[in-house]
Amino acid sequence: MVELITLILFFFALYTIVSLSLNLEFGYGGIPNFGKALYVLTGAVVVGGILNRLLIWYFGIEGDFISASSIAAYKMTELISQNPLLGLGIFIFCVLLAIVAGAIVGALSILPSAKLKEDYLGVTLLAISEVVYLILFYNTEIVGGYYGVSTPDILAFIPGEYRMYAYTVLGLICAIIVYLFLERLLNSPYGRILRGHRENEDLIKAFGRDVMKLRVKTMAIGSAIAAIAGVIFVFYSASVVVNAFNRVEWTFYPFLIVLLGGKGNNRGVVLGAFIFVLLKMLIDFYKFDIKYLLHLPFEAVWLQYIIFGILALLILCYKPEGILKERPIFTPPIKSRINE
Amino acid sequence: MIILETKNLCKSFDGVKALDNVNIEVEKSKLTLIMGPNGSGKSTLINAISGFLKVDAGKVIFEGKDITNREPHEIYNYGIVRTFQNPEPLKSMTVLENVLIGRKHSGENIPNALFPSRWLKEEEELVERAFKILEFLKLDHRWDHPSKSLSGGQMKLLEIGRALITDPKLIIMDEPIAGVAPGLAHDIFSHVVQLKNKGISFLIVEHRLDIVLNYVDNLYVMFNGSVIAHGKGREEIEKVLNDPKVIEVYIGD
């Protein structure tokens, strides 16, 4: 039971980070980022593709990338188990690298689409994301593709039975930092202009704003944050398996969370992430019981997709504003007017 | 004094001339009206001036500077703002936010947004001014309502409010009183006249001539992409309105 709760909290942290970043882009900014999974994957590539290569080079390991990675990861894990600071140092290094890489990938991928209106923009981002995903999946040279690669366990200094808890705490700390960062960033004129962009980009243009710049900046920040989640997920699994970063898990589900919790409301999104992960885990846990109880005429694995698909439709039809409605941005001078 | 002029503006859509050598002049502190039947090129003209359409040939000169084919957000920097044909408030945002968003703000930049001390003072002044504008437009009692709760006429006023906070030199309005009850329509123009007297210039496209002609200083009549008549001052405007060419265009429509 404790394990299940820990698992729920760990994925709650991950989904909170990714969904909050999507809320920045989509909830506030109206950018339909159907390519969200790509930016989470960017974080994974930073660990599997960059960190692993650095380690292989450092240890001077010969041979093909995948087996060399296993040896490097093993050697590094050994070192970390003796030296906690090394593990945390590597984690922070990877997070910083992921922030930079995420920001660059985010900014670049919106460039060709920045002159397009909403629908085309979304499709373009989806296409870019899928192309990169497929390349990384079928090319085993970059991050191991469908074979996957091992990565070091950065918390190897913690005894095995507490490993899971430690990763959960790490994830939750990151989620809290991301939440506080975004709340501060968005309760400002920047948040206001983002909402303006969502409501009517022509109007924002007519009032002197460079819409392209605004989108590039917003995508850079959102993607940098999503990449952090990728890093945490990879270290937790101690491997990169590209198909763990598919569009259902990291694009569709974050959208569902944002819609469920409340577009443009960070607190709502956190709540949405919690409800979603709870539901996901329960379905995962009880799917076979549900199948036999209800005599479902399909495989139990499809249950999750079906339930979440229906949930998405129900929200869009009956409660498009989500559980917690968006609130106006109250900067301090505006707040003081309310109290008057 | 002329604040804006267009010189031989041309724009074609698939071979159809939407603007055919259009020359207009907008005087400072005056209300210039462009009239003409549907499809005569009025909206194309203001879209071209405000940067939403690129012209094929010709020039737009504002205060002596060539602003032809600049991006809309660059044109704003010269002191030109525009409203749209359909009132386009930022629907789910409050009335106050709709006005505030008109003006560029240093708190919109990153990383400034993260440090309220860098933009709080500016925000305070801006909120103060926004309230003054809302009082002037008699919308202040609704400042914290979502703008979608306003009536059509109030939305038009809100658009003016958003333009005002930018300290514009020229306000371009695309049908500011379309679909607005006559009482409120006159109200909108009495606001325009007050602002005009303070030195703001107006370029307006409007169909409801019965109302708007009471306030117009200069008039251009367009048809099939060309200016077919124009007049400056009351007398000339009367003449233009009685011009057989102009009457024919309207009856023909």
UniProtKB/TrEMBL annotation, chain A:
<feature type="transmembrane region" description="Helical">
    <location>
        <begin position="6"/>
        <end position="26"/>
    </location>
</feature>
<feature type="transmembrane region" description="Helical">
    <location>
        <begin position="120"/>
        <end position="138"/>
    </location>
</feature>
<dbReference type="GO" id="GO:0005886">
    <property type="term" value="C:plasma membrane"/>
</dbReference>
<feature type="transmembrane region" description="Helical">
    <location>
        <begin position="164"/>
        <end position="182"/>
    </location>
</feature>
<dbReference type="InterPro" id="IPR001851">
    <property type="entry name" value="ABC_transp_permease"/>
</dbReference>
<keyword id="KW-0472">Membrane</keyword>
<feature type="transmembrane region" description="Helical">
    <location>
        <begin position="269"/>
        <end position="288"/>
    </location>
</feature>
<keyword id="KW-1003">Cell membrane</keyword>
<keyword id="KW-1133">Transmembrane helix</keyword>
<dbReference type="GO" id="GO:0015658">
    <property type="term" value="F:branched-chain amino acid transmembrane transporter activity"/>
</dbReference>
<feature type="transmembrane region" description="Helical">
    <location>
        <begin position="244"/>
        <end position="262"/>
    </location>
</feature>
<dbReference type="InterPro" id="IPR043428">
    <property type="entry name" value="LivM-like"/>
</dbReference>
<feature type="transmembrane region" description="Helical">
    <location>
        <begin position="300"/>
        <end position="318"/>
    </location>
</feature>
<protein>
    <submittedName>
        <fullName>Branched-chain amino acid ABC transporter permease</fullName>
    </submittedName>
</protein>
<feature type="transmembrane region" description="Helical">
    <location>
        <begin position="85"/>
        <end position="108"/>
    </location>
</feature>
<dbReference type="Pfam" id="PF02653">
    <property type="entry name" value="BPD_transp_2"/>
</dbReference>
<feature type="transmembrane region" description="Helical">
    <location>
        <begin position="219"/>
        <end position="238"/>
    </location>
</feature>
<keyword id="KW-0812">Transmembrane</keyword>
<feature type="transmembrane region" description="Helical">
    <location>
        <begin position="38"/>
        <end position="59"/>
    </location>
</feature>
UniProtKB/TrEMBL annotation, chain B:
<dbReference type="InterPro" id="IPR027417">
    <property type="entry name" value="P-loop_NTPase"/>
</dbReference>
<keyword id="KW-0029">Amino-acid transport</keyword>
<keyword id="KW-0067">ATP-binding</keyword>
<keyword id="KW-0547">Nucleotide-binding</keyword>
<dbReference type="GO" id="GO:0005886">
    <property type="term" value="C:plasma membrane"/>
</dbReference>
<dbReference type="InterPro" id="IPR003593">
    <property type="entry name" value="AAA+_ATPase"/>
</dbReference>
<dbReference type="InterPro" id="IPR051120">
    <property type="entry name" value="ABC_AA/LPS_Transport"/>
</dbReference>
<dbReference type="GO" id="GO:0006865">
    <property type="term" value="P:amino acid transport"/>
</dbReference>
<protein>
    <recommendedName>
        <fullName>Probable branched-chain amino acid transport ATP-binding protein LivG</fullName>
    </recommendedName>
</protein>
<dbReference type="GO" id="GO:0005524">
    <property type="term" value="F:ATP binding"/>
</dbReference>
<feature type="domain" description="ABC transporter">
    <location>
        <begin position="4"/>
        <end position="249"/>
    </location>
</feature>
<comment type="similarity">
    <text>Belongs to the ABC transporter superfamily.</text>
</comment>
<comment type="function">
    <text>Probable component of a branched-chain amino-acid transport system.</text>
</comment>
<dbReference type="InterPro" id="IPR017871">
    <property type="entry name" value="ABC_transporter-like_CS"/>
</dbReference>
<dbReference type="GO" id="GO:0016887">
    <property type="term" value="F:ATP hydrolysis activity"/>
</dbReference>
<dbReference type="InterPro" id="IPR003439">
    <property type="entry name" value="ABC_transporter-like_ATP-bd"/>
</dbReference>
<dbReference type="Pfam" id="PF00005">
    <property type="entry name" value="ABC_tran"/>
</dbReference>
<keyword id="KW-0813">Transport</keyword>
